[in-house]
Amino acid sequence: MDFTLSKKHEMARTLFREFAEKEVKPLAQEVDETEVFPRGTVEKMAKAGFMGIPIPKEYGGQGCDVLTYAMCVEELSKVCGTTGVIVSAHTSLCCDPILTYGTDEQKKKYLPDLASGRKIGAFGLTEPGAGTDAQGQQTKAVLDGDEWVINGSKIFITNGKEADVYVIFAVTGLIEKRGKQIKEISSFIVEKGTPGFTFGTKEKKMGIRGSSTYELIFTDCRIPKENMLGQQGKGFGIAMHTLDGGRIGIAAQALGIGEGALERTIAYTKERKQFGRTIAQQQNTQFQLADMATKAQAAQLLVYKAAMTKDQYTKDHKTAYGVEAAMAKLYAAEMAMEVTTKAVQLHGGYGYTREYDVERMMRDAKITEIYEGTSEVQRMVISAALLK
Amino acid sequence: MKIVVCVKQVPDTKGGVKFNPDGTLDRGAMLAIMNPDDKAGLEAALRLKDQYGAEVTVVTMGLPKAEEVLREAMAMGADKGILVTDRVLGGADTWATSQTLAGALRNLEYDLIITGRQAIDGDTAQVGPQISEHLNIPVISYAQDIKIDGDSVIVERQYDDRYHVLKAKMPCLVTALAELNEPRYMTPGGIFDAYDADITVWGRADLKDVEDSNLGLKGSPTQIAKASDKVRKGAGEKVNLDVTESVDYIVGKLKEKHVI
């Protein structure tokens, strides 16, 4: 077992770090304050190839692995959680299901624009009555001739109004399973600008405030029949499998937020003096930092392992990575919350002000315990695998 | 068009300079980066490639570890990398370095050779022009802009207060300033490809038309008496005053320090 990164991964990390420090960090505070989507940064990321890292070259991507993608989200999130989730939602929740379940035509039509970042992707599963319980879906799609007619709404959609291509889920009928009638869910690709597809309110969030979180509204929205993604009725499986991958992205985001807070706290405690010496010289600080660093390292190992397990899946289409992804997300998200909270505490009164990055990071960290499956859902996934 | 870019791996001086007890640079203790002027030269070559189509070959001389800058250059878009490395080439000053690089370049076809103006570890600005002398081709130094016009290159050469526009027939050597451009980022896919690609490695035997007496430490006329880091100055004082007030302020300070 070798824990050293390959030289190519090391160089990729250098690239991501340099980009994050130079292009993302200077804007992080402003993006949070103004709640404005960092369009300029996304354009720069597109140019540098960050919007299609694990997508094969034949579809205009970078042809790299999931580990490299996770490292990208990690490094971006060290300085700005908003930028991290933009890349994560775009890559894991839109490019990935199209790559995995799309027909050749769909892949050729959508992936080159998405992977090059000319277009941004989003994913719509959650509804007012259907979050963790995906069976609560109300959005319906009815086939009318050669078109699916979609009615309903999706909420809390990351990259909401900024995206161009949306992978969404809707009920296409009822089926009988083990003597019970359950909803048949299917998946679709919807493009921005389709008549009947509009946006509702923008969410005012606690953290990741620059990410565009909107409600998607479908009113007699007609899309071509060929925009169904995967087979009819397979939508639930597609959603769950997509979220397994998405969790690696969010775990990487959480990891980055925690690591970023730790880096700033180390620097701060070496400067801040109380009682004639730096607070880094106080044993309480030292012990806190030791705990924070240990947990961040543990999270990193889980995230990288999950990413590498998904890479194995890419090769053999067999290896399961759902449990690894759930463990990585669960642990990294809880680490991020704990580490950022301690970071604020170690910064004292300054940490509670918006002058200091750790305040933003603590707010950004919270969402990682909630979206793409709450920590409770991750525990359900992990325990179900243990007890099956 | 064929462009060769000479690059050097240098210690990153941003975090301060570290020395060995004998006064030489402790390169192992410092982060290694592509010399900024060279990186601008590479970017200029890649822009010419984007605009006119060109094959860009990157050459470096150094320890085996210097292949990292070749991979970086290839991850940015260079087509080939050549590492010139050999124990007998160690300890080279600018003369021996330019002799070595010229010996390597004689094996290659080129229309344009681009080097950085100078490296941040030595700051001599001698290697580029020396290579052009050895190869007997024209040199235009301190380029702030490079354009191609048929079989010629048109370069803006920077001065403190002006620039010259010079046109030279290719083959020609141009030395680039870091201000020439903002180098592009590597791409993740470029990095993967660069690590899958082969790097050509040349040793002493591969150098063409170079005397042993011009290589390595023995071929280096430079003698280093002593090396030291820059002495850090204080942070200085910043004041925001209008013209009249600021003159009074400065004169007052100079009097206070008994300068005037």
> Roughly what percent helix of chain A?
40-55%
Largest sheet of chain A: 4 strands, mixed
Question: Would you tell me the structural class of the helices and strands of chain B?
Answer: alpha/beta
Largest sheet of chain B: 9 strands, mixed
Summing up helix and strand content along with how strands pair, one would put the structural category of chain A as alpha+beta
Give me the Rg of chain B, rounded: 21 Å
Anisotropy-based shape of chain B: globular
The average pLDDT of chain A is 96
Unreliable segments of 5+ consecutive residues of chain A: none
Number of helices of chain A: 10
Would you count the extended β strands of chain A for me? 10
The assembly state of the depicted protein chains is heterodimer
- Count of distinct strands of chain B: 11
Residue share in helices of chain B?
25-40%
Uncertain segments of chain B of ≥5 residues (pLDDT<50)? Answer: none
